[in-house]
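Lab notebook: predicted structure, single chain.

Context: the supervisor wants predicted structures on file for every construct in the current expression panel, including those that have not yet been purified. This is the next one on the list. No modifications to the sequence; it matches the entry in the shared construct table.
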Amino acid sequence: MKNFVEELRWRGMIQDIMPGTEEKLMEGPQAAYVGIDPTADSLHIGHLVSVMILKHFQRCGHKPYALVGGATGMIGDPSMKSAERNLLDEETLNHNVECIKAQLSRFLDFDSTAPNKAELVNNYEWMKDYTFINFIRDIGKHITVNYMMAKDSVKKRLSRDSSEGMSFTEFSYQLMQGYDFYWLWKNKGCVLQLGGSDQWGNITTGTELIRRMDGGEAFALTCPLIRKADGTKFGKTEKGNIWLDAERTSPYEFYQFWLNVADNDAESYIRIFTMLDRETIESLIARHRENPGARELQKVLAREVTVMCHGQEAYDKALEASQMLFGGNSEALRRLDERTFLAVFADVPSFDVPRSELPCNVLDFLAVKTAILPSKGEARKMVQNGGVSVNKDKVAGIEREIGPDDIVNGHYILVQRGKKNYFIVNII
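Prediction complete. Output recorded below exactly as produced.
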C-alpha cells in the first residue's frame, strides 16, 4: 500500500489532520468519504481538490465513497457563506445527483470488481424517513448547542448583522452532516471523512458524534482552500465558474483557463490537479523556472487536467482551436463548433452583412459591405500584397468573390488582415 497521507503531504494537499489518521491508514485498506452538495447539475473546478483526494485515496489501495447530499442539499451548508442558499426541490436534486455521478465516474473506478471500487451514496436514502422528533431525540441529544456554537462557521455567521443571522435550518446542517459520518461509519465502515478546510468543524462534529453515541473512533483530514497567487478566489472568471460540464464550460474554455494560470499558481496546481508523479513534477518545475517564457508547466497542466476531465479527443480539439490565432487552416477552422469558434475569436471586431448581399467581390466585401479596410484602393493593395485571408485561406487575387460557400457554422466569415488583425463578419 502507498502512504496516502505522505502522497497528499508532498503535493501540498493537507490543511488539518486528526492525530492518528496516518497510522490508521497504514494498518491496511480503509474506507473514507467526501461529501458533495448537489446544488447544481455539474461539478466545477472548486470541487476538484476533494475529488482528486478521493482519486489518490483509491489509488493508494483504500475504498472511496462519494456522498452526494440529496438531504443536506435541501438545506445548504453555512460554512464560509455570507447568506442562506435557496432551497432546492426533490426533482431538481435528483437530476443533479445523476449528473454528478456521471462526472465522478471519470475520476473514480465505480465499475470494477476490485474490493476498493468506489461507491456513490445519497444521504437522502437514510434521512427521508427519519422523523424530526426521532432525529432530535436520537441524535440531537448527543451534541450540545454550546459545542455547535463554538464552530467557526456558526460564529462567523452569528457575528454578522442580526438581519442576516442564521436560520435554524442552516444551524441544523452541522448535526445532519455529523450524522452522515456516523451512518457511514456504522453501516459502511468509513473511518475517515475528507473535505475542504472550511468543513473541519462539520467533520469533527461527526467524529464526536461517533465517539459519544458508540464510543467509536473516526478521523478527519482536510485540504486547503485553493486561492490564486494574488489572493483572489480560485476557479472563477469574469464569466463565472469553470464547470466540468462541457455544455456549461466548453473544453476549449476549460483548457484555456489552465493554460493561462500564473507561474506561481501553476507550480502548486500541477501537484494538486494532476496524477503526475513527484519526479516528473519536480523536473517540470525546474525547467519552468529556467525558462518560464516557454510556459511548459502551464501546457502540461492544461493537457493533464483537460484529458482527465474531458478526454483525449476533446483535448486535441481544444489544442487545435487554441493554435487557430497563430496558425491553423481552413479545414481546421471549419471543424470548430460554433461555441468554440466564438470563444477563440471572442474579442475581435465584427461586422454584419445581410445574406442577400452575397456573393460579392472581395474588394466590396472588405471596404463597402464592411470597414475592414478604409477604401477599395487600400483593399486592392492589401490583397495584391498577399495580406488578406478569408477563413485562413489567403485571397489570391482581386477577382475573388465572397459567397455562401465561405460561411462557417452557418453564420460567420473570418477575415484576417495582415498577421494579427482578425474580423468576424456575421452573415444575417
